[in-house]
Specification:
The structure holds two protein chains of two kinds.
Chain A (H helix, E strand, L loop, with lengths): L3 E4 L2 E4 L5 E7 L6 E7 L5 E8 L5 E2 L8 E7 L2 E6 L8 E8 L9 E2 L3 E5 L1
Parallel strand pairs in A: 2-11
Antiparallel strand pairs in A: 1-3, 3-8, 4-5, 4-9, 5-6, 7-8, 9-10, 9-11
Chain B lengths: L2 E4 L4 E4 L4 E3 L1 E4 L5 E7 L5 E7 L5 E4 L2 E4 L9 E3 L8 E8 L7 E3 L3 E6 L1
Parallel strand pairs in B: 2-12
Antiparallel strand pairs in B: 1-4, 3-9, 5-6, 5-10, 7-8, 8-9, 10-11, 10-12
The chains are: A mainly beta, B mainly beta.
Chain lengths: 117, 113
């Protein structure tokens, strides 16, 4: 159980275009989802935390107008990279957890590799 | 702020060798500590965890003990297998109810037959 999927697994887009990445919890309701960015040979950097039905909370230094996060349902969150540039090329990972007054573990998706040309 | 430091990789060992991956942390209070593993092409999976001092987490032959006095959570395995080849991440979660995880930089482990 506790499976999280991401789509697409990889995407190539042209500079200046926008790309949407989906994160789904397949067998549980995720009240909280997280979006991370992972650079080659480096750690995961938390970009933002989103709770279902409310605005995402962005980490310091992350441009919220560039990385739009929507957590519209208990099983789906999306990350849209707007006006993408080559420096946005990276591996984006989401995770999801469910809460009901307790803190549950985060379950991670397999990641999406974005290449901006 | 909170931070996690892992031993730098890559680490290459022969099958059946003893493994230690060092992890130390800086945090206020008593965070929960985790080891995650990322196999090639897959997402991070929770390997083991410990939520208070002197707790030992264990799974699949891996162990790590929460050492408050040395602020460490070193990962060990007595006899590694080729299938253990992966990237290992140490992480902490602050004790105040937040779900945010802070990760170390990851250690790539390669086991040769």
């Amino acid at each position: 159980g506790a499976v999280v999927s991401q789509h697409p697994s990889w995407v190539i887009c042209k500079s200046g275009t926008s790309v949407k990445i989906e994160c789904r919890s397949l067998d549980f309701q995720a009240t909280t989802m997280f979006w991370y960015r992972q650079f080659p040979k480096q750690s995961l950097m938390l970009m933002a935390t989103s709770n279902e039905g409310s605005k995402a909370t962005y980490e310091q230094g992350v441009e919220k107008d560039k990385f739009l996060i929507n957590h519209a349902s208990l099983t789906l969150s999306t990350l849209t990279v707007t006006s993408a540039h080559p420096e946005d090329s990276s591996f984006y990972i989401c995770s999801a957890s469910g809460t009901s007054g307790r803190v549950y573990e985060q379950y991670f998706g397999p990641g999406t590799r974005l290449t901006v040309t | 702020g909170d931070s996690v430091t892992q031993m730098e990789g890559p680490v290459t060992l022969s099958e059946e060798a003893f493994l230690t991956i060092n992890c130390t942390y800086t945090a206020t209070g008593y965070p929960s500590l985790f080891w995650y593993v990322q196999y090639p092409g897959e997402g991070l999976q929770l390997l083991l965890k410990a939520t208070k001092a002197d707790d030992k987490g264990s799974n699949k032959g891996f162990e790590a003990t929460y050492r408050k006095e040395t602020t460490s959570f070193h990962l060990e395995k007595g006899s590694v297998q080729v299938s253990d080849s992966a990237v290992y991440f140490c992480a902490l979660r602050a004790p105040q109810g937040a779900q945010k995880l802070v990760f170390g930089q990851g250690t790539r482990l390669t086991i040769n037959p």
